[in-house]
Amino acid sequence: MEKIGIIGFGNMGEAFAAGLRARLPEKKLVVVEKLPTRAGVARDRYKVLDCTGDWVQFFSHADVVILAVKPQDADSLLREISSYSQGKRFISIMAGKQLSFLQTHLHTPYLSRFMPNLAAMHGKAAIGVSFPEGSSTPSPEMESFRAECLQIAEAVGKPIQIPERLMPMMTGLSGSGIAFVFQFIHAMALGAVKTGFGYPAALETTLQVMEGAVEVLRKTGESPSAWITRVTSPAGTTIEGLQVLEENAFTATVMGAVEAASRRAKELEGV
Ligand SMILES: NC(=O)c1ccc[n+]([C@@H]2O[C@H](COP(=O)([O-])OP(=O)(O)OC[C@H]3O[C@@H](n4cnc5c(N)ncnc54)[C@H](OP(=O)(O)O)[C@@H]3O)[C@@H](O)[C@H]2O)c1
User: Does residue 195 share a domain with residue 90?
Assistant: First the structure.
């Protein structure tokens, strides 16, 4: 893999360019972006080869292409590139666009779907990665394509390989889930404000608590419930707070939020 093409240089296109520049600096980047200001950012900040307006040049350079336009722009884009796409390698990050839809337009078996979240901007996304499911053993070319995809995903976070049918659930957990975590952080900070903290100190403290909790879970490999039991002393402060959370159905509410977002993603996918 020498050159990576990106079509659509918005938030996600830029996140991939930044991650690839930082982690795979030897790769060359080629871009097509219809907004001149965004194409300028791609050229000036990431030193990409801008092929906007010249698909022949773009496809002669790009060994693997990341499709990073909005889902509503997918149809017109795929129609535009379908005469160049045969046998090429594609990664789509477009929410709700299935591999079978891509296959119909792009006429190539080398397809992958990613579901990142906005932490891709800082190389910390949880990224669902799917490939077309076939019964036969993958060819060496397909194996090398899959390895390339995982390498590209690692440039912006942690790839989690899943069957495509779980993509809507990944949207609920990762794509939308990051907003649920922001909401929880905000709520913790507001609780501290209620008890007398200023919001900036409350937020900073909450972020440290979050980082600490993640670190404990990662370093020990133990489950959240094991640690909750350890932190909760008899007739202590933690059990008082936990009771309030559960009186207000905290666990069921969060479960419901992930489920609702997944359900909506499924509806948008038309399955
Ligand atoms: N942002 C997230 O957190 C997130 C998470 C998971 C998945 N995704 C997926 O990532 C994709 C990109 O999202 P985003 O937030 O980066 O969107 P965005 O900021 O709107 O970026 C898309 C860019 O592509 C350009 N574009 C549209 N059609 C084009 C074409 N035919 N050729 C070249 N450029 C074209 C757009 O220009 P115009 O504005 O002029 O149309 C825009 O600058 C979406 O499909 C989304 O579902 C995003």
Answer: no
